Fold each of these.
Amino acid sequence: MENKTSSTADETIEIVSRGMGCGTGPGKYAPIIIHDGGRTTTLDELVIMAAKGAPLGWKWYRYHIMFATNAITLNGHPEDAAILVRTVAEIIEQHGPIKMTIVSGSMRGGAKAHLTGSTMLESIHINAATVAAAAKAEDDSGNDANKKSEPVLVGGVSFEDVDGDTSTLHVHVSASSSSDGSSSNVLSWYAGGHCLIESVASLKFDPDEMTLTCPQPILPTPFTNERVWNTLVAVLKPGPDTNEVLGHISRMVSETTVEVALEGFPVISE
């Protein structure tokens, strides 16, 4: 579908906008109308305009600004801040006319960066201030002996799904030890800096769908906007890198004696 990046006497720009999967609604939204040739409209404002008609509100999606030969993706992550302040006119001058904006769904079983502000840029600034305040509070908390002890990490494997979200499977020593002083290793699933599943019992890989599934309820976290899913699913990218990741997970589970049932994983040769 071609964008009608058209100009009138007041240099009005009309941009096609569509939704694509994961709760983005019927697909085609009303065109985005930008006046003054985009000289006074930032990409931060374009995000809000693109989500008009999206059923879940602008905070639940990532945004792809499509040009003839390339695209800009906005997720609400810190690195987006420098792009969001640029104007539509500046972007068009650099990349050419905008073909369309695509509003795409969040990570399956999760969400992108936690957005709390009135715009994506404000949310990034709020998150940065929150992280800085938390770091300062930890530094000022005084006596290390009074701090909650962190779990001892034994191993970890990180991977990226098709939506660009990064997950990490951590193996660590269980914080609760038995009465005889012994402890066990547990596998936890992290994403966006938050623990989604504290103790993973099983993982299933489906090579046809390229999905890695943990059939357990997730924890409500800022990463998921406090929402909860009964099953956590990540859609992986096909190829040798994914096969290598699956092998790393199998070895980690085996070598750290974690009690996790693995289904559909490749057999690890000795």
Amino acid sequence: MYYDSKEAKMLLGRSSDKIHGLMKSTAILQTLNERLKKKSTQAEEYKFEGKMFLVVRVASPIFDKSTFDLFEADIIVPSNVFDQIWLLFFILEHKKGVN
């Protein structure tokens, strides 16, 4: 999950832009809530008897776990389709050691 399409293009090397501009935490939470709603709707149609986990990769290096912890009450999980929902975060410090 990226903040928006502009950030995705920048991080994937598909844009010559170097600066994104103002990025609000409320907007990334809205993006997360939209994704959760969409994935829950899709999962309700699965013919699957086992446990279902959803992993959301937050690829934006601007927002980390603390952002989502701070606004946890604003995260809306629309149904109990998933047994667990995991957020996977980008950690810049881990990338520094990789060539």
